[in-house]
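Q: Predict the assembly, please.
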Amino acid sequence: MKYVHRAGFLTLILLICLSAFSAETTFRVKGESLTPFGTRMSLEWKVKRVEDSYTFLLNNREKAEMILKAGKVVKIRRRVRYAGKEKWIVLTDPLQIRLELKSGFYPFAAVLNYSKNGSRETILSTGRFEVVRSTVK
Amino acid sequence: MKRTAFIILSVLVFPALLFAGHEEVTLAKPWNGYWWPMFEGMLATGKGYREHPSTLEKYDARFSFDGKATEWELENHFRPDGAAWNGHCNGWAAASVSEVEPKETINSEGYTFYIGDLKGLWTMYYQGATGPIYRGADDGTMDPLTFQTELLAYLRDNSVPLLMDSDATEEVWTWPIYAYTMDWTDDGNIRHVTLQVLTSTDGVSPDNVNTDFKTFNYTYDLTLEAGVPASGVWTGDSVSYHPNFCWYPEVVESGNPYSNPYVAHDKVAQLAGGVYNDTVDDGKEPNDRFEDSVAMQGGFIGRVLNEDWYGFDIEPEEKFTMNLYCNSRLANSTNPPFYAEIYDDTGIYLEDVGFEQATRYPNRTFTGVDFVSEFLKIDPIGNHFYDENYQFGVEVLSHTTVISHTIPGDSYWDNFVVAGFWPVTENKAVRNDSDYRVVGISGEKGFPLDSGTETIAGFAFREVSLTGGESTPDWIKLNSMTDEYQVYSFYLSQGEGSMSFMSGETPDKELILSHVPVEVGYWWYGLVLVNPSRFYPATVDATLYGNDGAELAVVKIQLNPYQKRVGLFDSFFPGVSQQDVSYIRFKSNEPITASALYGTLNHRELSYVPAVGRSGWIEAAPAEQAGEELSFFIPYNLLGYGDDGWNGVVFVEPDDDAVSATLHFKWIMDDNSSVTSSLLIGMHHKWVGVMEDLAPAEVDLSHLARIGVTVRSGPVTGFYMTGSHSRGTLVSFPLLKYFDIADEVFPVIQRDGLETIAVFYNQKPYAVNELPVFAYDSDGQQVGTTKRVDMNAFELKKVNLKDIFTAEELSEIKSIELYTDSFVVPYVIYEDPDEVYCEIVPPTLTHGAE
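A: Predicted assembly structure:
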């Protein structure tokens, strides 16, 4: 019984640590995105993770958000400019999300892979991304 | 604005259940525009739109970019010979969905921007836009399920248009989809779909604001799994014609290679948000009266609100056209858009500036007989709306040769200039005569250096006046309506024992000065920059490269029309250590000349090295010629000084687009044996040293005859240097490109005890016989008979003119013509037998056959 309590206590400590570990994480992702000209363009993304929400920043400007539930992407938001104003495009349809992950401009798939299995590099048909550094706050 | 109708009709058809559906979405239509094809370069050239001042010329002037935006566009997006479909359709489509449509002409600080100007600027900004790109399942062209899914995601679910490339070939045709109509019927697990999409169009004229649109029709089948589309195939005509990919512009990353880097979002937004003001000043000048006239400057953009007065000079033997461009000309096809009149320097009316029906510009060609100052008055036509922009365009049609540096007579150096011309017309006939005038420039103003027009017939060099009765000018130029002139300016320091020369330079917009020497106690190093245009200011970016190939600094240098800047390295580049600089690249919006002067503080030595334009770069030899020595060669030991002489060389790889330059050397000895070696020069790196450092160990320099070089990758530029340890001689020589036959004319100098020695250097391993030497007087008439020279293999032969012509003949000779064979280098040495100095004039290799 004593050992059970000790194991439970250690588990609790570990859970607290893991919780703190995963509460807010910042990734740096190097990407080569395909352009409409068929060439690639180097971009560097900063990705902030809070719980299951990943915010994508380019040049310190928030551009997109990816939300996971049970390891699956359930929502993607992207900030676009339309008719002189900023507007969020919101995708929740699974097929739309699947195509968005594949579109390869944002490093959604790279970050998803990294969060799932630690794979640092994701190569898509339209882009190549590499998680070059992750830091824990 | 979204209108969604979602109608599903269910019809029971015996025996199967057939479902049919209909869906349509319409958003606000993105604005129509123009695709600005690259073969026209319209945004920079104005051709086909409103001509000059073009969209970017006005943008440059408004934001003081010194023509940089226009220049970038011309260099990167003007492809007269490019593919006909190349254009800005992607930039227009991205701009049309991202920004509000410009619908009015605006005026900003006197610069008028029409609707097409504003749409063009937005298009240019978004030309480098990128974002998510949706392709087919197999990463090829778009499959119908992806296309439909994205249409629904953007238009139906988010009320945002979607861009598509409509052509599955390499051509890109981008259209913003703002509406679709979809009809379908289900047949078992197959859904037959017909889809119509509407797009905005880039096929309207730039100033148009209209409701035109394009229609695209597609058909396809979707395979359903549990009632949900799982895959799809195109059907009917759509099998061969369907969208290639779709995308949305989300980022215009700074530094992307497709957007004009000078066209910024905030600046275009500032213009697009402006209003039209017809009372703002008519330019930057208070020149409303003859007494208040200002100098006419090419490229200047003003407004015709009231009278404007400009003064300008016309030089003798000069011809130039003056165009008065105006954007509003389109509405005035048979009359000039404003009065333009010429007045003399007392304010008396002379004539109107002609109006050319073909171009519909006021236009005038001026031909100079003597120095004249005239004045131009621009005057609005009464009761008419001409407060738009006009612009001066000046094109010089005559020939100009520049000597960019002179030395006043009271210095250590005696400066004298000789000029001659190559008397061959464009159709290769021998010209009988050629007229020229020599003009001195002081304080950015020209004045005559001679008493009148000189006429030369045939091959001849003549000494030209350097003062014209006034003080020595800052620099000099030769004007000629008909011919290019070969001009040499010699510098002689008899008392100190040194001689040098400068030859006429070819102005260029990009120049490489391939060597900046390290500072040594008894040497000085200076630069000379000249803007040879009287009408256009030049803005020069001098990029200083370090020994590691990195950019150390970019220094901006402004040159007014006709301005010369001369000084030591420090005066041009304060704060930059000369020790750290390897070489310099000058890039200018207008052609300039740039050159370096090297000298010793004791005046014993002076040498001049001109910067080289791209035409002087040596490109890589074709692969099939690799192994041959066809790029250039270095004539070793040109002076024949033996142990007293030294030889050095400079190589630079100056090209941003090349990774490196690879040089393969063939060291040919005087017994015709050879040794090979290689040299790799990284991008923006330099190699400099004496020949002992460059040669492989097995090369015995005392028996070296020629160094043949093949450029395997490149390009490369540089020069060859030679001199003697005991004489006041430092000569720089261009890298001599391979030539077949050389035909060269050199001046013969008979002053200050100088003797002219013709030199032939046979670098071939066999004898060459009967090379001709022709001599001419000051009128180009041949003097004496043609002399012949025989040469042994690898022989360096010096022929003193006094040994082959009589004293009487010699007194008349002003020039000699040397005609040689391949690898026989003709040049001339001037030396005084009583002095230690001498000077070499190398061949130009501009005549004969390569």
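Chain B has six domains: 3-28+133-165+175-239, 42-130+254-272, 290-396, 511-613, 617-735, 739-850. Residues 3-28+133-165+175-239 of chain B form one domain.
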